[in-house]
Amino acid sequence: MRRWGAARYDAAMSEPNGLIIGEDGHPRCAWVAGVPGFAHYHDTEWGFPVADEHLLFEKICLEGFQSGLSWRTIFDKRPAFREVFLGFDFERLAHFGDADVERLLQDARIVRHRGKIEATLNNARRACEAMDKHGSLGALVWRYEPPPSERPTRVTPASRPSKTESSARFAKDLKKLGWRFFGPTTAYAFMQAMGLVNDHLEGCSVRAQCEAARDAFDRPG
Known about the structure:
Layout: H1 6-14, E1 19-21, E2 27-29, H2 38-44, H3 53-66, H4 71-84, H5 90-93, H6 98-105, H7 114-134, H8 137-141, H9 165-176, H10 184-193, H11 207-216
Antiparallel strand pairs: 1-2
């Protein structure tokens, strides 16, 4: 979870059980503290299971852009990323070429990193291949939901990992398929955000909601 930023991570973990109490009286994972928009993201997105193709692809790409940066940097730029990458419609992005890369490198609203931009377009083509082979990107992604035996009995600051056997296998398999900027730690952050695991801490007011959503979720494929 240090991907949120080392200073805020350390502050969050200094709180009892890694939780804070919001102005509404509800306990939340402490990484939301002090950042506009994080509480809403935590309450409505992070950890809830996702099947939507474009949202899954978006998160893979944004996790890649986050490499070496904080999630707050990417989160603040997310509206611009969505605009310039066409809502992360990978079937459209697969047709982008060198001229589009040069154009995107001039857009100061996003992270102007040639390798990450090129990886996004490459990964769009790989997502199209996943659609052809598996029927949907979700069918590929959800194959890597970890078994219960890999999960901690209780999710606490000490038990919540930064990568797992499943995330390592996920990253390794996607690399073999030609995906870029998606290592084991990135893969686990993706799994946390997209609901493949429920890493809301014990005592977090959203944890039960996420668990109920996962129980009702119809896994793709």
